[in-house]
Amino acid sequence: MKPSLLTSQPSRRGSHRQADSGLGGEGGGGAASAAESVFRSPTAAFWIVIHGVCCVISVFLGFRFSRVVFVLLFSPSSTTTISSVFTSVPALHAAVTNTTTTTTQMRALVLASSPPPPPEAEQNSMKSRVVVGRHGIRIRPWTHPDSEETMRAHWIIERVQREQRLQHGVRSPRPLIVVTPTYARTFQTLHLTGLLHSLLLVPFPLTWLVVEAASSRSNDTAAFLARSGLHFLHVPFPHPMPEDSRYWRTTESRMRLHALRVVRDRGMDGIVVFADDSNVHSMELFDEAQRVKWMGAISMRILTHITGLSTSRGEDHKSPVPIQGPACNSSGHLVGWHTYNPLPNTGATFIGAGKTVLPAKMEWAGFMLNSRLLWREAKEKPDWVRDLDEVGKKGEDIDSPLCLLEDASFVEPLGNCGRKVLLWWLRAEARYDSNFPTGWTLEPVLEATAAANHSARIDASPELPSNSKLMAGNQDSRNNNIST
Amino acid sequence: MEKGIWGFTILIVCSLASRTEGLGMDQNRQILGFRGNAGDALDDDPVGRLKVFVYELPSKYNVDLVKRDPRCLTHMFAAEIFMHRFLLSSPVRTLDSEEADWFYVPVYPTCDLTKDGLPLPFRSPRMMRSAIQLIASEWPHWNKTEGADHFFVVPHDFGACFHYQEETAVERGILPLLRRATLVQTFGQKNHVCLKEGSIVIPPYASPQRMHAHLLPPDIPRSIFIYFRGLLHDGMNDPEGCYYARGARASLWLNFKNNPIFDISTEHPSTYYEDMQRSIFCLCPLGWAPWSPRLVEAVVFGCIPVVIADDIVLPFADTIPWTDIAVFVAEKDIVRLDTILTSMPTEIILRKQRLLANPLIKLAVSFPQPSRPGDAFHQILNGLARKLPHGSSVYLQPGQKVLNWTAGSVEDTYPWEK
């Protein structure tokens, strides 16, 4: 017990109880034994007296008053220590006056056992400013993020990434030639707008070669491209898109070949990327295109309605989303192709009320080639490529870009050897009989009822259930027409 | 008289102007390229500038310990072992002790590991003492200087104080027998008992092979703003949480665990090195000791280290421009860490990244095997070479004794059995 009286190390627990209830017992016992020790050592007596004083003060204050205060008062450090002690003492008082006893016990724990740290070491350079021992954990009152700071952080990240691209990215980027076959239909503007926004983000010089099948609405596309802000080339294709959807694919392939002939005839230099208007492109695809030497291919994920339906039935583990792309062996060489396994009737099938187009065995999207492959005379042109005029001449089925080549094994697999999916194929089309206004501008309702036989006006489909609001709301009927 | 004053002031102004001009030039050099003042010193070649004699101690002091526990080769205190191996085959080594400038004592005091791999420092003072008694009795060089031209590698938590708990380490102080020797240690804190004048602060060991195995190409975009993985609360040794890291790590967690730009947690992901390469800032707060291999890993992976440790002395502070590379945040400013880091101008951030990309700096903090010019081994030798020639206080009169061989705790004087 006596050692506990004489130690200056404050105990962590039950200080309040000790001060109050133990006071009588310890104080009494201490006094009795103190009488003997007084004659032995005056310092021990001194400490006992101090302890008694502290106990009395604690009774009045309501918590344990530490003797460390006296140590600091009489220590050889300067007056700033004393002032810091006195600034903390009013805090002690403030803590006491309006709190319950348990709270003061807690405050005592924090304040009594961690003396204010020694002042700045200007006058005491030998001692470190940093104190070993118990420290408080600083928590600010509002620990939630500030939205402005988060925005600034994202801006910094973007700037750093831009700098990284400048430093480590492509040094001298080659221009891209994006070949897109398109035809007038309900969702044409939708798809073209999507593709346009993707192409606007590409950081390389770009030419958008849009091949459009002949139709009566050819001004729509021209107007759209003029507004686009990209460098484009609108190439008309002499034949219209056939009504029968089974022949859409061959017509598109022929449109692409037509575009390649344009590239060859104009001597355009760059990398030809086949981008269908309905697909979704990743920006990395265009970064990978810069690495093409002669002809490259990346992996493309195919999203069709078949897979969508099967997942809704809970069988997605049986039918994984198919991928078209190069297959590599472990040493990174092209050994084959992953292809989509088509159903017996390729082209289009009726699914529900809409018509959906399924992909062929090998789609054009995902391939990219150096335009010099197409030129008639180009130095170092490899001999495994066929002459462009030969392709499709004899009416053969041009179903994939591999038919441009004699030997398909020279295709370079890109995107980490086909492991990265950089392109998603999907074909979302409206109902075959749906119509839409020119340029997607809607005239007011009043004029619509008046001009009922205008050629560009909306016709209600005879198969749909008739609405009472048919005449009043032409827009509603148009909405009902469109289905994916 | 007045003319004299005029002349004096003109002289002062001119010298100040030339100084600031010089500083401006240096700034320009530093901004334009990474070959500022620091680049020159990093390139210094110690070969030919000093000679080191390696004592031949019995293998119980070094090799046998490693044989018994090969984990010593991969933990963060392995610098002592690799320094010995480097010196054995280095061109600065001399076999003639008379011509040596520096003497190296190859003893591995940190290679006494528990079952979990943590080093026990309780026998280290005795091992040191036993080794020094051996060299003092067999060679004359110790007594000539009482160790002032000897150097020891002590990479433990608090260096030559040989304890993992800071309060106890401060109480013990540096081992009395090492008070005159040059200490090569990882611990560095200003005005601290365990860092003595003239010590060389080195980076902790981080395995270069492991780091290079996880290297990503530099064009992987950095998308994490602030990254930290490590202990935030030492529940076993400090359940209350007010002692560990002086409350800094707990403060980090409690203030920023909900902040989306902070990616901090106590997990041990297998993609730790890859994640550092995808981060812009890597936090390096103090733990039980202010240093950690996190700093080395951040520098190697190009992530700007955010050092949160008051008064820390960083490795090779005289050659590596830490203020230009790292961000220093005072412990009291942790609560404002998000404001501090997001309000840094982007030019400064990009400049720090450019300087960090300097391969010389990455090499200077690593311990590759075999050694390459400019790596941490060579920087240590550079530091030793810069202390040459030895001052007059190094050499003692014959028979003069400065060190107190009986100082320190009693347990340290017990003989060391191994």
TrEMBL record, chain A:
Biased composition, class Gly residues, residue ranges: 22-31
InterPro entries: Glyco_trans_43
Annotated GO MF terms: galactosylgalactosylxylosylprotein 3-beta-glucuronosyltransferase activity; xylosyltransferase activity
EC numbers on record: 2.4.-.-
Domain of life: Eukaryota
Membrane topology, as annotated: Single-pass type II membrane protein
Biased amino acid composition, Polar residues: 1-12, 464-484
Major location category of this protein: Golgi
Localization per Swiss-Prot or TrEMBL: Golgi apparatus membrane
Residue segments, region Disordered: 1-32, 457-484
Keywords assigned by UniProt, alphabetized: Cell wall biogenesis/degradation, Glycoprotein, Glycosyltransferase, Golgi apparatus, Membrane, Signal-anchor, Transferase, Transmembrane, Transmembrane helix
Biological process, per Gene Ontology: cell wall organization; glucuronoxylan biosynthetic process; plant-type secondary cell wall biogenesis
Transmembrane segment boundaries: 44-63
Gene Ontology terms: cellular component: Golgi membrane
Function: Involved in the synthesis of glucuronoxylan hemicellulose in secondary cell walls.
Family to which this protein belongs: Belongs to the glycosyltransferase 43 family.
Protein name: Glycosyltransferases
Source taxonomy: Eukaryota, Viridiplantae, Streptophyta, Embryophyta, Tracheophyta
TrEMBL record, chain B:
Signal peptide residue numbers: 1-22
An example Gene Ontology molecular-function term: glycosyltransferase activity
One cellular component (GO) term of this entry: Golgi membrane
Membrane topology: Single-pass type II membrane protein
This protein's name: Exostosin GT47 domain-containing protein
Family: Belongs to the glycosyltransferase 47 family.
Domain Exostosin GT47: 49-344
Lineage: Eukaryota, Viridiplantae, Streptophyta, Embryophyta, Tracheophyta
Entry keyword NADP: no
Native organism: Zingiber officinale
Keywords, in A-Z order: Glycosyltransferase, Golgi apparatus, Signal, Signal-anchor, Transferase, Transmembrane
Chief subcellular location: Golgi
Localization in the cell: Golgi apparatus membrane
GO biological process terms on file: glucuronoxylan biosynthetic process; plant-type secondary cell wall biogenesis
